[in-house]
Amino acid sequence: MNFYQLAIKNVTRNLRAYLAFYLSSSFAVMIFYLFAMFIFHPALEEGYMNNIAQKGMAAAEWIIFVFSILFVLYSVSAFLHTRKREFGVLTITGTSPRQLRVLLTVENMLIGLSSIVSGIAGGTILAKLFFAAGGYVLDMEPLSLYFPGKAMGLTAAVFLLLFFIISQFILFFIKSEKTVALLKGAKTPKGEPKPSILLSIIALGFLSTGYGMALTAEINLPNAVIILITTVIGTFFFFSQLSIWIVKLLKKNKRFYLKGFHLLSISDLTYRLKDNARLFFIVSIVSAVAFTATGVLTVYQTNLHAERTQYEIEYLSSPDNEEEAAHIDSIEKSLKENGFAFTTDEIETIEARYEKEDGSAPPVLIFSQEQFSTLQPSVQEESIEAGQAIFYKDNRGVLSKEDIPANLDFMDTSSSIEVKKVESSVLSISSTMVVNEETFQKLRTSLEPSTLYGYNYQNWKDSVAITQQLKRQLFGDYSNINFDFSAKAVTYFITVQLPSLSLFIGLFVAIVFFLAAGSFLYFRLFTDLEAEREKYKALSKIGLTEREMKRSATWQLGILFFMPFLVATVHTGFALMVLEREGFFNVFAPSVMTILGFLVLQIVYFIVVRFSYIKKLTASITD
């Protein structure tokens, strides 16, 4: 048997241990490949939004790849830990470092190649669904299928290189240990964990500080950094010290500790917490990042809405605007050159500011009822008396009905207007109000009128690029602003399409992170599997039944899987409460939906792993 045959035999013999590594790697490859297909799609070569989507996908590509490096490094090191005795035997039988390197390289390349093939195959099968979902979320035309030669080549090249480099790097861990240490493997005596009361108190202090600041402190960059650092440090000491101290307190409760299988489970849990403290810390932080990112994007996505304003482009010119004619000419010329057939409304309006109790003075545009009927024909039928107005709130939803005073007192004039009722927005450029002709003429004597130009045209979502360019051209260096400009396409791009793109990308990246976190737990279980089998086999000889073994193992697996999940959920809850405290919409319902979605994934993962793990342990009792 040569080394290539030995490598194949090792992979097939340890197939169950390699399974989580293989499946998680395949999923990472699949997501990377799908994003690559999106990036290289011929239909995305032109268009402003298409270009942004390509850049966003490319950024996500390399986030996944960098995380895959850490994931593969951890996975391979976990396998090496379980195979130390095997490497020790190979070493004393004359295997040279070069031969060992070849063996490891071939093994990892076999797994890597299998992951790449299955990942690309899975991505090809799901491509149509991925493109349809992307088109729906980003409000783009559905993308057609094509032969993704570049995507396949890029995916295969980067992941083959990753698996090869990791294989070479891991060998240094083996060479650093002596043969005797390798032969002993993981069988080293464990001392009883002794948590530090001081460090446990520090864990409580850091977590309390982080959570307290999240709930009460002003959120700025320095405070955000402090919250992040204290929470991360507190989480580490929670798993490495405080949790072990809590278990030791449980041991002192004899009524609980000596009941049923608790004696075995709690005694063993102390060692599990000590051995897996760093793993729990990593899984908690990674999961919290995934939950928070997805939660934030979901909260934002559920509060987005498309523009429901009258005009696709609005230009408001103040009385002293000397560039009005040149600007109007630039807008109309740009629309014509890019094939947009448009109609124009020119309406006289008054720019004013009304005073609020908090000292602020929001702007509002005042229209006469007759002029405003150009925008809203139904307003002509309204009965508006002198001194009354219909208020059309801010189109971005910044103003609610409760924010608008019942009577508006204007600056630079003694006039006061009663708000008859509040309606949804009709203009993007400002809040507006409609008064009758008599009131309008009265206000006109003390406030100079401005001119609003409104442009309507079809397919306005395709005008992002030209309206962005117009905005930069008109405002220039913002040195002399006697006008305002707003484009529905630009606002829609910023408030809807970009967040939707972030949600689409962030969701897939978060799922990759979450599945990788679950895989870390899986690797750790099978790293300790041999020791656990020997323990339960010995306990079965003194009376431990199979049912008791299953209950004990299930309880410990539940702690292993759901304790980091619970900590990550608490972290996420406090992070999202910060958003709600800062006025970032209502976070409760979207956050609960996000956490429940990840919980379902975790439960499914737990059931699958438990079935495999219990089956292995049961075999140790029945042998």
Automatic annotation (TrEMBL):
Protein source organism: Halobacillus shinanisalinarum
Protein family according to the UniProt entry? Belongs to the ABC-4 integral membrane protein family.
* Signal peptide location: none
- Protein name (database record): ABC transporter permease
- State the membrane topology: Multi-pass membrane protein
Q: Where are the transmembrane segments?
A: 20-40, 60-81, 102-131, 151-174, 195-214, 226-247, 279-300, 501-523, 557-579, 585-608
Location in the cell reads: Cell membrane
Alphabetically ordered keywords of this record: Cell membrane, Membrane, Transmembrane, Transmembrane helix, Transport
Start and end residues of each ABC3 transporter permease C-terminal domain? 63-171
**Source taxon at top rank:** Bacteria
